[in-house]
Amino acid sequence: MADTPFFEDTAVGAELPALEKMPTPRQLVMYAGASGDYNPIHYDRDAAAARGLPGIVVHGQLVSSCLIQLVTDWLGPAGLLKKHSVSYKAMTFPGEKLLLRGVVARKSEAGDGLATLSIWAENPRGEKTVTGTAVVELPRRPV
């Protein structure tokens, strides 16, 4: 637990270690099978073009899942993700590097170890494609 982010040691404004992903068309097909989201804009270039898109697009929920990985990787086994929410702002395309980032936005003063994180995904153009928040419970240092 050497890398465990304890509540007492975590400052507002602290950045989570960034996570990089590179979604592929194959991953989109696999995600469609796992999630049941078979919208053809995620795997069929012609269907995407018919909707005016420049190519197939990554499932928004897949990007949201990557943001959850960012948070849980940082929390480690001693922390707990309590809730999260996201908003979809722009499209993510397969083959583009996706940079997942987060920062501690605020900490509870109630002694419960809760912190709210601001989380987001950026495409190579610096656009935030998905933004959101996560409420986490950090372990407390023994007294």
Automatic annotation (TrEMBL):
InterPro entries named in the record: Fatty_acid_synthase, Fungal_FAS, HotDog_dom_sf, MaoC-like_dom
Keyword match Transferase: yes
One Gene Ontology biological process: fatty acid biosynthetic process
GO molecular function, one term: fatty acid synthase activity
GO cellular component: fatty acid synthase complex
Domain MaoC-like: 23-108
Keywords: Transferase
A Pfam entry, by short name: MaoC_dehydratas
Name of the protein: MaoC/PaaZ C-terminal domain-containing protein
Species this chain originates from: Dehalogenimonas sp. 4OHTPN
